[in-house]
Amino acid sequence: MSTSLSSSPLIIGADLNSNDSVQQMNVGAYAETPDGRGFRYALNGAVATIAGQVYQSAVLDATNDQPSGGLAVAAVAIGGTTITTSTSTTWAVNQFAGGYLSVVVTPGQGYLYRIKSNTATAGAVGGVIVLEDPLVIALTSASKVIVIEHPYSNVIVAPATPTGTLAGVAPSIISIARYGWIQTFGAASVLFTGTGAAGKAVGTLSGGTIGSAAPAIAATNILGYHMATGITAEYALIFLTIH
Predict the structure, then answer these.
(1) Which residues contact 215 (CB under 8 A, 6 or more apart)?
(2) CA distance from start to end of the chain
């Protein structure tokens, strides 16, 4: 499906406690409750979610997916949708389906493309990535790219130090490898480490109990703001602002 702009999706009757064995909509789809709380549709990873804990994307891979300087590719003309890597990688088949390819070294730098599918590789060159949309700028052998899974595909509980993109807070249980909703906006009950004051910013951990939020400090991601005093090891009332 090609990428095009659209208004907010109209999702009627979706259950906040969904635990879908079959995908019902695009991963990352956004929906709101009538009171304004916001949620993203996600694929859970290898451990069932726990209500009130913080989740992140799959672990970023700076060796195979986002190496410094990017992955080398074969030349592709404007309008092409198939990209072949000439840097050795190890990928699972369709690992990046629904994710993104960014051109990081010119020609073509600055453009982002949604990934439709990819082949498996095993420490070898020749990985094939198929894009949802055609290239706007031709790629040459000088171009470099990086790839990433969709941040709401294979989410995992946030570790003591983040290793991926902040996703949100689980409002309920999603079983292993099933689909459901992760909260990103509005009032939420969230596991908390530290001491928090009403109105103060809440961030990701820089060390501490996995799945927990903490008082925001430099170099941490902002989840939102305290709606009440935060007490360590309890579930704080936090207004999420992730979106």
Answers:
(1) 194, 195, 196, 200, 201, 202, 203, 230
(2) 24
Given the structure tokens 């907010």, which residue do they identify? 8
Residue labelled with tokens 């990433």? 148
Phi-psi label, residue 211: left if phi above 0, alpha if psi -120 to 50, beta otherwise:
left
Pick the closest to residue 21 from 6, 50, 43 (CA basis): 43
Write the pLDDT tens digit of every residue in 107-161: 999 999 999 999 999 999 999 999 999 999 999 999 999 999 999 999 999 999 9
CB 181 within 8 A of CB 168: no
Q: Alpha-carbon distance 110 to 92, whole Å?
A: 26
Contact 232, 202 (CB under 8 A): no
Question: Locate tokens 């410094």: which residue?
Answer: 68
Predicted TM-score (pTM) of this structure: 0.94
What totals of helices (H) and strands (E) does the chain contain, helices first? 0, 20
**Count of alpha carbons within 13 Å of 31, Cβ hemisphere only?**
17
**Token pair in block for residue 37:** 């709380």
Q: Is the peptide bond between 34 and the residue preceding it cis, with omega within 30 degrees of 0?
A: no
pLDDT confidence of residue 220:
83
Extents of the domains making up the chain: 30-58+158-241, 71-148
Taking a C-beta distance cutoff of 8 angstroms, is the pair 68, 62 a contact? yes
